[in-house]
Amino acid sequence: MTDALVKTTYLKDYLAPEFKITSLSLRFQLFEDGALVSSTLKIKHENGISGADLCLAGEELALRSVKVNGEVLSEDQYFVDENELILKDVPAEFTLECDTWIKPQDNKRLEGLYKSSAMFCTQCEAEGFRRITYYLDRPDVLTVFTTRIEADKKRYPDLLSNGNPIDSGDLDEGRHFVTWNDPFPKPCYLFALVAGDLYCQQDTFTTCSGRTIDLKIFVDHKNSDKCAYALDCLKRSMKWDEDVYGREYDLDIFMIVAVDDFNMGAMENKGLNIFNSSCVLAKSDATTDNAYQRIDAIVAHEYFHNWSGNRVTCRDWFQLSLKEGFTVFRDSEYSADMNSKVVKRIEDVNLLRTAQFAEDAGPMSHPIRPSSYMEISNFYTLTVYEKGAEVVRMLHTLLGEKLFRAGSDLYFERHDGQAVTTEDFVAAMESVSGRDLAQFKAWYDQGGTPEVQVSSRYDASQKRYTLKFSQSCPATPGQATKQPFQIPIILGLLDADGVGLPIPQAEGKTSWVFELRKPEDEIVFENMDQEPIPSLLRGFSAPVKLSYNYSDEQLLFLMKNDSDGFNRWDAGQTLSVKILQGLVKDCQSGQPLAVPESYVEAFRDILNNEELDKAMVCSLMILPAASYLVQLSKVADIDAIHQAREFVRSEISTRLEAELQAVYLRNVSESGQLDLSYGGMSQRALKNMALSLLSVNAGSFFFEKAQKQFGESGNMTDSHAALSALVNSGNREVADEALLSFHDKWQDDAQVIEQWFSVQASSAKFMDLSRLNELMKLPDFEITNPNKVRSVIGVYCNQNLVQFHDVSGSGYAFLADQIIKLDDLNPQVASRLLTPLTRWQKFDDSRQQLMIDQLKRIHGKDNLSKDVREVVEKSLPQ
């Protein structure tokens, strides 16, 4: 990629398309050495003007022929280069026919049409369609697609595309065809095609209006026993979307295809969702509980896109969070309804604080609606998805459930079949609520994580309690100053017994939504007979960093007494952070390490409380991640952070050994059947949390139970947990033996081998760089497969922090080597791997320089992709 070809796209420069495409017919002739794509486009100038030029995007296409209204164009009537086809002086309305030759079997970028093993498949979001044929490859050009696929019948008996099948038949030379029509206009990023020899598992769903929908999941024949769970998830999702949002499915058929080589998790193509195999295939002995829950959430997410993304889509790619933020919010609420609202909220916020807040503070920081991009694939970020969902959640909080539902109904009604903007979504909420949300829209255009400072004072003589709030937001790239945000803060007040006090401003209720809209504001509570303890930001009602000077005793009090389950967890996390940060300082100064007895006793109380939700117990017992402690540090001492965390884990493991053993034994199930209910999953999670903590000091009880569980378990959750515990026990001989046994059993299952990779790559006790390099030499590892890359390189560099950040800088050089190699194969994957190097400002001077040197080395690569170039150039010191 030369500098001349790298350009930045700006939101401020958006112009509506001059032309619209009223219909598109595609003919794919698939062969083993390539594919001939014939497109017939009905095109019309929006203003009926003749003589304009039409520019169509296209990459890595060999143009065979081009016709306008049936006439072959001469070379002086068009211009073609590696990025576009320009038709000169076109009529106001015409038919364009193009034949292009492409080579899917050579497409390692996994964008456009490519081959995964023996299967043809597509990925067109965001700009992959231009790698199939010349087109107006932008989301605001919607048209009706008719697709004919031709291929060898024996090799490719299954020919799939969007919509409903309308024709099929046999052709000469053992070939056949199927024609599909999607009656709903869509942008080309939602186009999909699959051709292969696949196993199909079928079911049906009856909609709320009585229509019968055919449901089909297509997978490799070897995975025929891994489809049932995803089908159940799909039916649950369809029912939930009808019940909660009133959204009924529109086509006659809904299909999912599992693909081994896929850059993303899944793709919501209209009626034909294409999934990364790891996000859809499930079987009890090969799939962990976490994977089951992930599959359920992703199947729901992609299905929910049928309305929030497909029927109503984005005007431009700057509006990406319009569909993704809204749909993440919807799938999060679905998962909460299927399991535990509190535990799901904790999981979501943990991801946001640990990873998205770090993104907000880094060089790639951007608002959920960015103002510019060099490569749009770089903006499929946690900010757009997770923070975008939090912004939608705040609207839900401000309006309440009924008005939010009315707003979403109005949004879908107003804009069905349109490509729209975030303003259109907010306008629907304003219309149903009568509220002015102009200030709220700052969340879409201002980057960074707002910081809210809270202080309190109590006047005993006046029985008056006051909470004072102030808000600010750090500077981010391109935004030195920020306007005040509209921040909904749900709060409560607790008395000395932990009972919620009535709040006058909330008509006597014990929880209230306070809207912080000014740089500074305060609330006065009258008639307070005692000074209460505030419970702030309940349910994490806004994606902010809120600080209040709680004492350790107050945090312990909230851990035990707060009626808001999220805030109970958050109080424990805040206390753990205080203790860990103190231990980090002690490590640095060479002081002896110790943890307060009250802190350990709080964990003891949690373990002994058999009335608590078992999944909640797990959440309360987990320490803040090392990556979160890095983010909170001005200069992160990764070795001291690791030492401090391991010390606390060791103290808990040693001092609560009897309780942990009792928890383990109480939660061992004698049933041979795998219980996939929330209760069953929670029981296994609690048992394996205890096993993980017992592995820290690895006594005889641990080894006996872990080896027995590893050898005898009939489900992957327990097998995987035992393997992980053994690998992290520090006993390399036992770990190697278990890893070899696991590999021998599962070497033919790609998804399980990815877990096998991750268990090793994430372990600081087990995996160093030399062993990682040996791991990558195994036949199981493929640098061209994104899942394998993520499970080895991604896990090592993002989770095994103490090894990756070795003072020698060898980890940084290793990651740079892999990025340089991958840049020529799959720039999307390469750019996403870069994140650890972009966080150089968090570390000491020596590590900073070592990381910057590797960024410069990557930047110096010949023909660097724009994907990687954008991230590197934004990350290097300015």
What does this structure look like?
The strands form eight sheets. An eight-stranded mixed sheet has the order 6-5-9-3-2-12-15-14, with no helix packed on it. The protein has a five-stranded mixed sheet with strand order 17-18-19-21-20, with helices on one face. A four-stranded antiparallel sheet has the order 10-11-16-13, with no helix packed on it. The protein is α+β, with helices and mostly antiparallel strands and 878 residues long. The model has no long low-confidence stretch (mean pLDDT 97). The radius of gyration is 28 Å and the shape is globular. 41% of the residues lie in helices and 22% in strands. It has a domain at 307-546: Neutral Protease Domain 2 (Neutral Protease, domain 2).
Radius of gyration over alpha carbons?
Answer: 28 Å
CATH topology of the domain at 307-546: Neutral Protease, domain 2
CATH class of the domain at 307-546: Mainly Alpha
Largest sheet: 8 strands, mixed
Structural class category: alpha+beta
Number of helices: 28
Topology:
Blueprint: E1 9-10, E2 19-31, E3 34-45, E4 52-57, E5 62-68, E6 71-72, E7 78-80, E8 84-90, E9 93-102, E10 112-116, E11 119-123, E12 143-152, E13 158-161, E14 164-170, E15 175-186, E16 193-196, E17 199-206, E18 212-219, H1 228-245, E19 253-259, E20 266-267, E21 272-276, H2 289-304, E22 312-314, H3 320-338, H4 341-360, E23 372-373, H5 382-399, H6 401-415, E24 418-420, H7 422-433, H8 442-445, E25 451-459, E26 464-472, E27 487-494, E28 512-516, E29 520-525, E30 533-535, E31 545-548, H9 552-561, H10 565-589, H11 597-608, H12 614-621, H13 626-632, H14 638-655, H15 657-666, H16 678-694, H17 700-712, H18 716-727, H19 732-746, H20 750-761, H21 769-775, H22 786-799, H23 801-804, H24 810-823, H25 827-833, H26 835-838, H27 845-859, H28 866-875
Parallel strand pairs: 2-12, 18-19, 19-21, 22-24, 25-31
Antiparallel strand pairs: 1-23, 2-3, 3-9, 4-8, 5-6, 5-9, 7-8, 10-11, 11-16, 12-15, 13-16, 14-15, 17-18, 20-21, 25-26, 26-29, 27-28, 27-30
